[in-house]
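Feature request, filed as a ticket because there's no other form

It would be nice if the structure record came with a short human-readable summary line next to the C-alpha cells. Right now we just get the raw output. Example of a typical job, pasted below so the devs can see what we mean:
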Amino acid sequence: MIELQHISFDYDSHREILHDISLKLGQPNQNVIGLIGPNGSGKSTLFLNLVGVLKPTGGKILVDDQPIRYTKRGLNKLRKKIGIVFQNSDQQIFYSIVKDDIAFALHNLKLPQDEIDRRVTQVLKELDIEDLRDRPIQYLSGGQKKRVAIAGILVLHSEWLLLDEPTSGLDPDGRKRMLILIKKLISRGQKIILSSHDMDFMYEIGDYFYLLNNGQIVKEGTKDKVFADENLLNQSKLEQPWLVKLHQQLGLPLYFSPEQLFEDHRLQVNLHTALTGREMSE
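Raw output as currently delivered:
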C-alpha cells in the first residue's frame, strides 16, 4: 500500500505544483491505477515524489505504513519497491548493449553474477525481447527502447511499476504491443500506475483513475464513473474514450474494450441471421 497524506510540492515559493493530495494506492481490485490530467497538472511531479526523486514540501508519503526515508539507504530500499519508467526511455538507458543496461541496477546491488544472468535472461524472455540481448541500444526503435527500460526495472522485482506516458512516440503496432505487455504483467501480479494522454488506452487497461488538474485531485473512481463526466474531462482538456462516446451518444451498452464490443456485435448479427432465416423457412 502506498499512502499520500496531504502532499504538497513546489519548486519555488511562487507556485505550488501539487496541493494537499491525499490518496491510497493498492486497494483491492486496483491493480492498474490511471493518473490522468492535462499538461502541467502535476502528473510527472507526483510520480517523481513517489519514487523519492523529489521530496514533498508538505505532507508525507507512506509505503507499507512506513514514511519514506530520504537517506541513501532509505531511497535504495524504496526503489526496490517502486520502479519508474520515464516517458523518454533514453533518460534511463546508460549502457550501449541491451543486456548490460538491463543488468546495470543489479550490479549496483552487488548481486552474484549467476543471479544477475538468471534475472536478465528471465526478463528478456518475459518481455519477448530475447533477440535484442546483444543489440546496440542505438539501433533500437522507440518501442524496443521502452521495453528495455521496463526490463531494467522488472529485474529488480519491484512490487510497483510506474509508467509515464508508455505509448508516447509509439506507432499503432508499438501501442498494441505495449497494451499486450501491460496485460501480461498484470496477469502475473504486477501493480502498475500509468500516466498518459491516450484516453482510449487508459480506459481499456485501467481499473481505477485519479483526475489531476491544477495540482489537485478533482475526481476519482472506476472507469465508468470518471470517463462518464464529459464536462469535467473537457475542462481538463481531455477527450472521452470512443467506447464511452458510443455509449452516451448512440445508446449502446458500455463496453470496457473493443474486443467486448465486437464480440457482442457478432453475437447480435448471428442471432439476427438465425432468427431471420427461421422466419423465412416458416
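Something like this underneath would help us a lot:
The CA atoms of residues 163 and 194 lie 5 Å apart.
The chain has eleven helices and ten strands.
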